[in-house]
Amino acid sequence: MALIDNMEQTQSFMKSLGFPDLRIHHSINHFDFTKTDRRILIIGPMGSGKSEFSARIYRDSEVAMRKSEMVQQLTASNGVDRRNVFYIRSKIDDTRFEEYPSNCIPYRGGYVVPGHNVASIKDSFELERVLEKNPTVGTWIIDEVEFFDERIAYVIVQYAKLQSLNFIFPMLILNFRKDLFNRTARLIMEESTDVFPLTAYCEHPDCIADSYYTYRFYSVDGKECPALYFDPLIIVGGDKQSNDPKIPNYSTRCDHHHYLPGKDYTFMILKPLAETAYGGNVKPLLNELKRLKGDIERSELYQHLVNKYVEIETPKPIMLDALKVSCIAEKALIYIFAEENLISAGQMQQLVKEINGDTDYINERLVENRRMQPSEQIYQP
Question: Measured at the alpha carbon of residue 188, what is the angle toward residues 37 and 335, in degrees to the nearest 5?
Fold first, then answer.
C-alpha cells in the first residue's frame, strides 16, 4: 500500500518491458509494516471490499512474520511488532456472520482466521482492556469503528502515539442518508493519517457506474421500497436478502439510483412537530404519529411525497413505495428521540403507548443505536 513516489521511474520500467505509452494506475501493494503511528481509513459503500481488504492485510502479516530478524528491526519498536495484527469488531455485529467461525475476519465470500488475535467489544473502555492485554501487537484493525462511542477516537490516538501502533478502520464514512455516519466517524476521520477509498458497481440492474453510496431498502411483496430519511441510523444486518418489511436490505448505488424520500418532510414537518411537543403541546405530533400508524394516506408525510414525487412532470413512484414498509410511526419516534433528542424519555414512552407502538421493534433499535443496554426493556407493551 505504499504510494508510487516516482511516476517517471515507473513509466521507464514499464517501457523497458515493452509496454506502449498508456495510463498507469496505482498498484495494489502489500501493507507497509515499517511505518508507525498510522491511522488508516478504508472507506467505501457496503460491498466495496473493505473487510476483504482487511483480510489481505492479515495475510500480508503472515508473510512478513516469516522474514528474518533484520526485517523485525524495521517493523518493531517500543516493544511492539507491527507485523502482529489484531482484529476488533463490535459486539452488536456478532450475529452478522453466524455461519463463520467466531475467531475470524469475515467478508463476503470467505474469511481468514487470525488465531487468538480477535475480540468483540462494546465500547472504548473494552478496547483499552484488550490493548493492555496484548502489549506486543503493533497493528489493530477495528471493523466498523463508527458503531462505537466517540471516546474511542481519542483512545486510539493516545495509544498510536505513545506505543508506535498502527490502526486500520474499514468503515462506512457515509450512512444510508449520504450523510457523514455520525460523530464517531467525524472524529476518526479528523485524526486519520491515510485513506484508501474503495468503490463498487452500482447494483441497480440497469447501471454499471461506480458507486460510493450505501442504499437501504425494504422488500415488500417483491417490491423495492426505499428507506425513509428518518429510518433508524443503525440496523444491524444486511448481509442476507430479507423479505421481512421490518428488516432492511442494502446495496451499493450511484447517486442517480440512490433513492431517499422524506428528507424534506423530516426537517420541515417532523422535527418542528417534535419541538412543539417538547414545549408542552404533544397533540400535533401525536396526531401525525397516529396517522402514520393507522391511516397513512391522511398523514402529512403521504401528502408531502405525493406533491414532491407524483404530481410532477416526471413522476418517481418508487418514492411512494417507501410507505409500504412496517413501523413508520415507530421509526419517526426513534429518530426524534434517539438521534435528535427532541422529546424526553417520558414523552417517548407515553407516545409509544398512545399509538400502540411495536415495543419489540423500538427496544431492538434503541439497543443498536446505543440508547439502551441489551438487558433493558424500557418500552413495555
Answer: 165
